[in-house]
Amino acid sequence: MPAAAMATRRKPIRITMPPMTTHRTIMAATVLTMTTIIMTSTAIMTTITAIPMLMTASKAPARPRRRTVARARAVKQAAAQQISGHDAMNESEAAALYRLMTWLSPSFPVGAFSYSSGIEWAVEAGDIVDAASLRDWLAAMLGQGPGFCDGVFLAHAHRAASSRDDAGLRDIAELASAFAPSRERQLETSAQGRAFIDMACAAWNCDGLDRMVSCCDGPIVYPIAVGVVSAAHAIPLAPTMQAFLHALTSNWISAGARLIPLGQTDSQRVLALLEPAVASTAKRALQASLEDLGSATFRADLASMRHETQYTRLFRS
């Protein structure tokens, strides 16, 4: 075909440019699409990153290191060895402590709260006016008065009962009953002794206790009762002595606290200050013979006698 004819048949190609507004719209749509794709990709990446973190947080805690486990095991073994060694108590020691704490507790029903051992008259007479004077009065009663004498009687009664010396136990019980310096003091110690024996036989009876009690012909005063019952239960003498003197001192302080009166803090201070006196009295009583018995607290003896004629009284002695 001639070149002129071919040129005639070809149609020119027209390129139509969109208006400016259409071009801007396309560019905006393209930018929006790209932004959406980027945000979607970011969200996908964030989700992918968060999933392992959630999986890590939900895992069980790591096991402790071997050193930590070994150290804890060593501490546990050391504590067990310590308990089984110096700090341990065998069955008989635990039973003895339990019974002494029960029998010589203020809650044990012997009626000790109703007696003052003459302290009520001493307060009225002005001999006891505060915590310091109460401490001095009780220190003398412990070391040179009824505290020491009751400790001696307890020790000898415990030894006679433990060795089944029926005749010796009878003599000691008779001597202790006759040793009271006044009628009210006799009432105080015999009433508490009888109550102690009755409660022990009813709730804490054991083999041999009834026989020991029957050996004491006549009134059984308080220190004799404690010595006999503790011996029947095979409780050692030394802790029995300490517990008895502690209870005796606590009862005296309780009476003084109500009569002066004293607060709880001052009462405990007096008890703390009397600890050396209790310890030394217990030591002397454990070593003393019956020939060492004696009292030099004449003012306290007079107080127990004059209490009977007081116009107003809160206590029975």
Question: Can you describe what's shown?
Answer:
The chain has 317 residues and is an all-alpha fold. The chain has a domain at 92-105 and 114-308: Orthogonal Bundle (Urease accessory protein UreF). Helix content is 70%, strand content 0%. It has helices at residues 3-9, 20-57, 66-83, 91-103, 119-125, 131-144, 146-162, 166-178, 183-203, 209-215, 222-232, 237-259, 264-273, 275-287, 298-306. α6 runs parallel beside α13 (264-273). The N and C termini lie far apart (157 Å). The model is unreliable at 1-8, 15-23 and 25-57 (pLDDT under 50).
Fraction of residues in β-strands: under 5%
What's the end-to-end separation, in Å? 157 Å
Structural class: mainly alpha
How many DSSP helices? 15
In total, the number of strands is 0
Task: Please name the CATH topology of the domain at 92-105 and 114-308.
Answer: Urease accessory protein UreF
Overall geometric form:
globular
Model regions low in confidence, pLDDT < 50 over at least 5 residues: 1-8, 15-23, 25-57
Helix content: 55-70%
Series of secondary-structure elements, N-terminal to C-terminal: HHHHHHHHHHHHHHH
CATH class of the domain at 92-105 and 114-308: Mainly Alpha
What integer value in Å does the Rg equal?
46 Å
Biggest sheet, in brief?
Answer: none
CATH superfamily descriptor of the domain at 92-105 and 114-308: Urease accessory protein UreF
Q: Indicate the CATH architecture of the domain at 92-105 and 114-308.
A: Orthogonal Bundle
